[in-house]
């Protein structure tokens, strides 16, 4: 039953992931974020909003029934945490609340029940900088030192009432590790004219593969130990084909690409070792997607407080991924800050050589949820 309820969020999170990715893709830089983390933080925020503010968040999250989303997230988080005993997957939620400000009891109870959110009473009014450091230290601890300084200096100030934080940490060993002894420097073609040496891992074995003609990309899935979580690589046919893939990236194309993969018994897989650290201007992204009232004077936060005027002043997201011969380590954290306001299928190649810009995602199978999404343009 839990999996069934959690699965209600499979499509909304995938939709949301693609919406965000399309906002970030044109930068020319590497991209990495956790749609799961951002959606969880937004869903917790949704619990305290009403009226048009709530409608805007529900629409961006692709959720029809905002009343059931909290139970669905509760089940999803529980089933994610137990989905694969061989991988480390930790989700943590915490609210830091100005001690002179008391959120409504129903809001606090819902977040504790559905998101296992802990509440910390702090002194923003007299000691905002110390509280900022306290929040950053907690995030750093939950993410095993991978996400540092989530909140920049002055992100919280004396008028801050509440900071809502979600942190996700993932560490998975490959089902079949790469041999370190065969990793060697190989050319990675960032463009037709720019090439650099990368540490290229190699392994020959059986992998699920596919091809999507709409995106002109080959797809390969690399399972983590326990076979219930995996990294999926989307490799464009062309060296400079990532832009084409991104333009044609839709939920339908991605879903069919994932569904149409088939096991190939002998694949020569070349995959670069890489690390990406990424910081997103989340407030800007959410406003572009349609969440406007939350950050303005029309914010309806009557599910959190009867105090007026109150609005969310900021939203930040940081993520980190490290891919090597043993497996993958990834982490992400999202903070929402509330303040007083004035196709045709072709046979896939048996050699899968990731030597030019590509897109990737990390997902669990049961429940079926996309935890992280990224693209590597400059290793």
From TrEMBL:
Organism (species): Ornithodoros erraticus (European soft tick)
Superkingdom of this protein's organism: Eukaryota
Subcellular compartments: Secreted
Family per similarity comment: Belongs to the serpin family. Ov-serpin subfamily.
Domain Serpin: 18-379
Predominant location: secreted
Alphabetized Gene3D superfamilies for the sequence: Alpha-1-antitrypsin, domain 1, Antithrombin, subunit I, domain 2
GO (cellular component) term, any one: extracellular space
UniProt cross-references to Pfam families, sorted A to Z: Serpin (PF00079)
InterPro entries found in the cross-reference section: Serpin_B9/Maspin, Serpin_CS, Serpin_dom, Serpin_fam, Serpin_sf, Serpin_sf_1, Serpin_sf_2
UniProt keyword terms in alphabetical order: Glycoprotein, Protease inhibitor, Secreted, Serine protease inhibitor
Name this polypeptide is given: Lospin 7
GO molecular function: serine-type endopeptidase inhibitor activity
């Amino acid at each position: 039953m839990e999996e069934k309820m959690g699965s209600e969020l499979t499509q909304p999170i995938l939709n949301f992931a693609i919406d965000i990715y399309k906002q970030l893709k044109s930068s020319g830089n590497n991209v990495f974020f956790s749609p799961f983390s951002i959606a969880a933080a937004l869903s917790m925020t949704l619990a305290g909003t009403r009226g048009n503010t709530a409608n805007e968040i529900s629409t961006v999250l692709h959720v029809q029934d905002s009343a059931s989303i909290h139970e669905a997230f509760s089940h999803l988080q529980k089933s994610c945490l137990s989905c694969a005993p061989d991988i480390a997957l930790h989700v943590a939620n915490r609210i830091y609340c100005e001690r002179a400000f008391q959120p409504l009891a129903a809001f606090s109870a819902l977040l504790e029940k559905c998101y296992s959110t802990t509440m910390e009473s702090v002194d923003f009014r007299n000691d905002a900088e110390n509280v900022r450091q306290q929040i950053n230290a907690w995030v750093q601890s939950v993410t095993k030192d991978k996400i540092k300084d989530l909140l920049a200096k002055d992100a919280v100030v004396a008028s801050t009432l509440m900071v809502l934080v979600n942190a996700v940490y993932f560490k998975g060993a490959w089902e079949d590790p790469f041999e370190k002894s065969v990793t060697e420097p190989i050319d990675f073609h960032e463009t037709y004219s720019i090439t650099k040496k990368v540490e290229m891992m190699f392994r020959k074995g059986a992998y699920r593969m596919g091809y999507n003609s709409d995106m002109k990309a080959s797809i390969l899935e690399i399972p983590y130990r326990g076979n219930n979580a995996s990294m999926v690589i989307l490799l464009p046919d062309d060296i400079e084909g990532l832009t084409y893939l991104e333009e044609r990236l839709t939920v339908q194309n991605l879903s069919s690409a994932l569904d149409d993969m088939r096991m190939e018994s002998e694949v020569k897989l070349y995959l670069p070792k890489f690390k990406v650290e990424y910081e997103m201007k989340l407030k800007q992204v959410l406003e572009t997607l349609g969440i406007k009232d939350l950050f303005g004077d029309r914010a309806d936060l009557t599910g959190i407080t009867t105090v007026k005027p109150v609005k969310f002043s900021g939203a930040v997201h940081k993520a980190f991924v490290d891919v090597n011969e043993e497996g993958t380590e990834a982490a992400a954290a999202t903070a929402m800050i509330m303040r007083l306001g004035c196709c045709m299928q072709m046979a896939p190649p048996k050699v899968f050589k990731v030597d030019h810009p590509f897109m990737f995602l990390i997902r669990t199978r049961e429940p079926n949820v996309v935890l992280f999404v990224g693209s590597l343009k400059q290793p």
